[in-house]
Amino acid sequence: xxxxxxxxxxxxxxxxxxxxxxxxxxxxxxxxxxxxxxxxxxxxxxxxxxxxxxxxxxxxxxxxxxxxxxxxxxxxxxxxxxxxxxxxxxxxxxxxxxxxxxxxxxxxxxxxxxxxxxxxxxxxxxxxxxxxxxxxxxxxxxxxxxxxxxxxxxxxxxxxxxxxxxxxxxxxxxxxxxxxxxxxxxxxxxxxxxxxxxxxxxxxxxxxxxxxxxxxxxxxxxxxxxxxxxxxxxxxxxxxxxxxxxxxxxxxxxxxxxxxxxxxxxxxxxxxxxxxxxxxxxxxxxxxxxxxxxxxxxxxxxxxxxxxxxxxxxxxxxxxxxxxxxxxxxxxxxxxxxxxxxxxxxxxxxxxxxxxxxxxxxxxxxxxxxxxxxxxxxxxxxxxxxxxxxxxxxxxxxxxxxxxxxxxxxxxxxxxxxxxxxxxxxxxxxxxxxxxxxxxxxxxxxxxxxxxxxxxxxxxxxxxxxxxxxxxxxxxxxxxxxxxxxxxxxxxxxxxxxxxxxxxxxxxxxxxxxxxxxx
Length: 519
Fold this sequence. Notes:
Blueprint: H1 2-23, H2 26-29, E1 31-32, H3 34-37, E2 39-46, H4 48-69, E3 74-79, E4 85-90, H5 96-106, E5 110-114, E6 117-122, H6 124-149, E7 155-159, E8 165-171, H7 176-184, E9 189-198, H8 201-205, E10 216-224, E11 230-239, E12 244-245, E13 249-256, E14 262-268, H9 270-282, E15 288-292, E16 296-298, E17 309-312, H10 318-330, E18 337-345, H11 347-376, H12 378-400, E19 404-405, H13 407-436, H14 441-473, H15 476-511
Parallel strand pairs: 1-19
Antiparallel strand pairs: 2-8, 2-18, 3-4, 4-6, 5-6, 7-8, 9-11, 9-12, 9-15, 10-11, 13-14, 14-17, 15-16
Helix pairs in contact: 1-12, 1-15, 4-5, 4-6, 6-10, 11-12, 11-13, 12-13, 12-15, 13-14, 13-15, 14-15
């Protein structure tokens, strides 16, 4: 019997010491959530129609390019007003077999009607997939940007299973404006051929009859002096098809331009480098535009063959260049975003929440401890020791798992205290019943624990299942509540059953044949 109790106490001691080591000091080891530490709460909406339009534009450009390369003259191409399809006008005499083959190869995701023109509309299931992927990619891109920004324990998750909204909670952020700019920045990089440049849009389009050619687009850029000050604007007529895009980026970092001003250097992937090298070799002496977020940052002349490196110049500050490099590394958002909600929680409010939450927890625990002592007398000391141990192990587990403590999480801890006591109450009442039936003290304790065990497991298991569903489908504060509740339930099985029973058996072993039990 003594040997059995020895290993039990060694286990309890090891768990307690490990928990204290992991949680101490609590200020440094336990992560506080937004409502306790202060920070920013954002609800973003991904404009998924942008992703649908981008897919339509890409498909339209692919079809037009391939038809042209196969000798079919394209009279024009236009995207539908709803952005979900396009029309390509063919010149008379187009070879039907070539057209049909291009349609079959390039428009698998479209419903196509063929007459004088090619009319293509994205299939509904493809549109749903594109929208879903846009939100998923936006979620991952925002997460990458926030991770590189260095926010501790951020909450970044989709709101709803198939919704287009993203919830972002950033505890401890002292510059919410900068974070918002990083999240909002589309940072889509494109390198495009330059057709012509002019000081006004009218002068740019005059040689084309005032109309933008179908395979081109007009993009604006700033004119800067040697000190980086904007002195005017230039209008660029660029080819719509890009040589390389941000998807071909391998890395980006802050550097300096030829005037020792902040700039951003980038390197391309092997595939992107091959495309870039092939293009620059064939177009030496021509200009190419580095376009960022549909604005020309620079338009250098190609002096020689370039493989996989480039520089984005502009009137950047050091911080702006650093942020741009960060955003480029994290990837471009697949669509623009809209801020639907913004809340800023100040550190003072966070401290007040911590104080009130801790005060509520301590008052609740104190009342429970007093009740157990008054109602169960000596056995109440047993329950109270198990209760204190439950709180210590719970905080240690949260520190070990790097879980975030929120205000609802504190509520979960308080609820856990109640549930842990509830297990002791069930056990003690069963012991009382057995003593009332004339059982010996040792027999009553053993039967009380064994017969209450099934009820305790059933009640805790149902609560644990509910907590797991809250964790799976809830947002940040709800998850905080679910984490503490789930951990507390599992730990209470150890403290209320294993530890409490060990205490009883240790006392009974010292008393020998005990005749009474203070309960």
